[in-house]
Amino acid sequence: xxxxxxxxxxxxxxxxxxxxxxxxxxxxxxxxxxxxxxxxxxxxxxxxxxxxxxxxxxxxxxxxxxxxxxxxxxxxxxxxxxxxxxxxxxxxxxxxxxxxxxxxxxxxxxxxxxxxxxxxxxxxxxxxxxxxxxxxxxxxxxxxxxxxxxxxxxxxxxxxxxxxxxxxxxxxxxxxxxxxxxxxxxxxxxxxxxxxxxxxxxxxxxxxxxxxxxxxxxxxxxxxxx
Length: 226
Ligand code: E4P
Description:
The chain is α/β, with parallel strands linked by helices. 51% of the residues lie in helices and 16% in strands. It has helices at residues 10-19, 29-34, 39-50, 65-78, 91-102, 115-123, 133-138, 143-156, 171-180, 189-193, 199-216; strands spanning 2-6, 24-26, 55-59, 83-88, 107-112, 128-131, 162-165, 184-187. The longest helix is centred in the C-terminal third of the chain and has 18 residues, at 199-216. The relative contact order is 0.11.
């Protein structure tokens, strides 16, 4: 499983890159506008922070295939390193995906609510598909089941496209989609931090240290200088 940061906040991204095994950064228009900055400058700064190897996902705004293709080519020229173009999966998106993939531009089909949206994007050549797990759950659908069915379809038809599951509101959803066959997930910074933030672990550490210092002395807080 690879982990992506679903954010455009440079400070949060820099912190998570330092502490966690991060494969890249995903953005969407809502995430970008929250930063209230010129977007090209922001993409370039994120690129500087994450380096050229990690993938940076940038979503198009245009809706017809011609606009999508033009935006994708513009972004690919402006932003260095590994860039993946996110395209919400519509009929126009499928057409644009075929064109962009034949030009060597990597595509992620996003805003996916059904397995067949994912299958069409994949067959058009998308490198990734992003089912919106929490948004599906909010429609009284079952986001995990959608991910499981996409994984089954990809396996049945030997499709190499990866599932990059997105839109989470809690760790249980992430855990469930990983078990259901998601290859990768993109998660908001606040939720990533909760992966290893367990009061039980903090209590255990305190108990270990207390026993240690009772045995070896109050000044012994590491294994160094016994
Ligand atoms: C990721 O690429 C998606 O745009 C994002 O996860 C959507 O999340 P939301 O449903 O919390 O807005």
